[in-house]
């Protein structure tokens, strides 16, 4: 293993972990997956373009590459070779113009700001620095709105001389969209509108305009119909501009694949075969591939961050790198979980992952955007089928966009996200049984202790923030139990199909299989609760819920539950042999 360890250290040193600057990557001889063919296409004309991608997919590296291209071109300078030497664009680029490059990273500018006034000051300072660097006489004006300063700055530039690169345009929106900051959120919208208007009215000043972000929506007035900025986020031509394709991993990370196989199979590096490489790529694809940003659904890519993280680990372990690196972004914290998230969850676990084409292509504000669309934009869901919009007989053909989890990592991440968000960890009800809860739950199943099972689930229900997540229907009750099981790392299936029908929940441990059929009542009506409980038991018995291949060799336990909305707890429970009245 000594030779493998030496190999690992050499390989790890060349990984671009967390490094986004193109020139720095090339100067340090880090791995750079050549995406300059897309850079060339982006820079062919002065049509402003916008690209939306989830976090950690390489947007900032694209922006940095454009900055280097328009600042220094493809020739060497300062005594070193061109950083584009040997890349695809070297033979394509023939623009030798001199340009002023204004690169604004809104994520960095807003990071330490406590309010919009501080962000405006930070942005104003960045504009002043650019003007000073390029000898532009940008006279100070008292109490000037920052977008007005941007307009004056653009006016000072010669025609076709300015390159404007705006990275993470929506970072201030995400930061200032929390409750009680509505005025500040609207102020950010005004800044973006001002920037957008300047781009539209003074397009001749620009040689290139490129904007990135996580979200796209109409309220910002940047992407409204008829606007001057072209949204390339779903164009097939740019479907692979972020993320890694399978062929790119084979080409640029071949030695890393070889190391991973050697370590995992305890082989010498020279004994690793091409079949071994394909096999581990297949395994990686299950965890980290599957992202589709192509409206025709023809191309898929691996998560950039997850691939790099996988190769950076000595053990080459298939872990959840996405969530551990910040999979609960403020966009979700401040928007997705300020509404009826359990209802959305209940729809998702029932397989309802379609959204209207209009909602998907023209989402509204972050406050009322369809939550499944927001999950797509933040990387938790991806396209499952092509987006079709055709007019036939005065009707639009294709009124749904279908989404899915791209891979196992994101399915796990989503389950972690739910667990972290739905349950109030600080609550007394939650903390009273957090210690060894898995052992407790396992013991309950092994003993088939119905009273303890109901008590356990009611503790779970009491730890839910009912102000934001009221349980209004049966599927929402099922969703809460499922999300808690996810959080404990337990194998749970929702609406598990079998020949006789589908049980609400199938919860599987090594030696036990718990089948739950759930019912829901609004008021705690004793007669109605008994009737529903009897119905549930008939369903379990008549349809043989749980008696599938999953139950072979396991202790099967079939249970019916009745949840009362008014009581906010389970009020009736029964298995095949015992009845409890609570």
Give a concise summary.
The protein is built from 24 helices and 16 strands.
Question: What layout of secondary structure does this protein have?
Answer:
Layout: H1 2-13, H2 22-27, H3 36-42, E1 49-52, H4 59-72, E2 100-105, H5 106-110, H6 116-133, H7 146-155, E3 162-167, H8 171-175, H9 182-201, E4 206-213, E5 230-231, H10 246-252, H11 254-265, H12 274-288, H13 304-312, H14 321-324, H15 330-334, H16 341-349, E6 354-356, H17 357-361, H18 371-377, E7 382-383, E8 390-392, E9 395-397, E10 400-404, H19 408-422, H20 428-431, H21 437-447, H22 450-462, H23 474-487, E11 491-498, E12 501-508, E13 512-521, H24 526-543, E14 555-564, E15 569-575, E16 579-581
Parallel strand pairs: 1-4, 1-5, 2-3, 3-4, 13-14
Antiparallel strand pairs: 6-10, 7-10, 8-9, 11-12, 12-13, 14-15, 15-16
Number of helices: 24
Write down the overall geometry: globular
Report the uncertain regions. Answer: none
Computed Rg? 28 Å
Largest sheet strand order: 11-12-13-14-15-16
Quickly count the domains. Answer: 3
Distance between the termini: 61 Å
Oligomer: single chain
The tally of beta strands, per DSSP, is 16
Q: Within the CATH hierarchy, at the fold level, what is the topology of the largest domain? A: Rossmann fold
Question: What's the average pLDDT?
Answer: 87
The helix fraction, in percent, is: 40-55%
Name of the CATH architecture of the largest domain: 3-Layer(aba) Sandwich
CATH class of the largest domain: Alpha Beta
Taking the sheet with the most strands, its summary is: 6 strands, mixed
Structural class: alpha/beta
């Amino acid at each position: 293993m000594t030779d493998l360890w030496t190999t690992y250290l050499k390989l790890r040193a060349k990984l671009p972990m967390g490094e986004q600057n193109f020139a720095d990557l090339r100067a340090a001889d880090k791995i750079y997956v050549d995406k300059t063919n897309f850079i060339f296409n982006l820079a062919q004309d002065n049509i402003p373009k916008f690209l939306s991608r989830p976090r950690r997919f390489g947007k900032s590296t694209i922006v940095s590459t454009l900055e280097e291209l328009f600042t220094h071109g493809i020739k060497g300078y300062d005594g070193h070779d061109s950083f584009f030497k040997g890349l695809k664009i070297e033979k394509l680029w023939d623009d030798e113009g001199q340009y002023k490059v204004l690169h604004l990273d809104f994520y960095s500018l807003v990071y330490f700001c406590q309010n919009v006034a501080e962000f405006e000051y930070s942005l104003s300072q960045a504009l002043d620095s650019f003007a000073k660097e390029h000898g532009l006489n940008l006279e100070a004006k008292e109490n000037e709105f920052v977008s007005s300063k941007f307009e004056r700055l653009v006016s000072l530039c010669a025609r076709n001389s300015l390159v404007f690169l705006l990275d993470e345009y929506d970072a201030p929106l995400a930061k200032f969209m929390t409750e009680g900051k509505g005025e500040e959120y609207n102020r950010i919208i005004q800044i973006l509108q001002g920037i957008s208007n300047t781009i539209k009215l003074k397009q001749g000043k620009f040689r290139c305009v490129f904007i990135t972000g996580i979200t796209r929506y109409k309220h910002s007035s940047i992407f409204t119909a008829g606007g001057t900025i072209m949204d390339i986020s779903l164009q097939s031509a740019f479907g692979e501009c972020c993320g890694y394709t399978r062929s790119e991993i084979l080409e640029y990370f071949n030695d890393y694949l070889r190391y991973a196989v050697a370590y995992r199979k305890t082989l010498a590096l020279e004994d690793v075969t091409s079949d071994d490489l394909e096999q581990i790529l297949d395994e990686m694809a299950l965890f980290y591939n599957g992202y589709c940003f192509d409206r025709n659904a023809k191309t898929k890519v691996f998560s950039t961050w997850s691939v790099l993280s996988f190769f950076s680990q000595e053990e080459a372990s298939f872990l959840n790198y996405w969530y551990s690196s910040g999979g609960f972004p403020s966009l979700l914290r401040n928007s997705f979980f300020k509404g009826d998230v359990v209802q959305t969850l209940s729809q998702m676990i029932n397989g309802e992952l379609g959204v209207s084409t209009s909602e998907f292509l023209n989402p509204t504000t972050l406050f009322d955007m369809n939550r499944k669309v927001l999950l797509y934009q933040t990387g938790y869901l991806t396209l499952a089928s092509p987006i079709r919009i055709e007019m036939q007989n005065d009707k639009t053909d294709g009124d749904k966009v279908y989404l899915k989890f791209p891979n196992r990592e994101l399915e796990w991440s989503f389950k972690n996200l739910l667990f972290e968000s739905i349950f109030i960890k600080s609550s007394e009800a939650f903390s009273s049984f957090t210690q060894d809860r898995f052992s407790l739950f396992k013991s309950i199943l092994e003993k088939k202790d119905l009273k303890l099972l109901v008590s356990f689930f009611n503790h779970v229900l009491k730890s839910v923030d009912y102000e934001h997540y009221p349980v209004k229907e049966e599927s929402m009750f099922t969703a809460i139990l499922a999300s808690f099981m996810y959080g404990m790392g337990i194998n749970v299936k929702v609406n598990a199909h079998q020949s006789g029908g589908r049980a609400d929940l199938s919860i599987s441990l090594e030696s036990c299989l718990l089948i739950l059929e759930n019912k829901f009542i609004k008021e705690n009506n004793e007669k109605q609760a008994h009737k529903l409980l009897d119905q549930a038991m008939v369903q379990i018995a008549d349809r043989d819920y749980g008696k599938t291949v999953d139950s072979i060799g396991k202790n099967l336990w079939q249970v019916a539950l009745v949840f009362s909305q008014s009581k906010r707890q389970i009020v009736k429970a029964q298995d095949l042999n015992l009845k409890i009245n609570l």
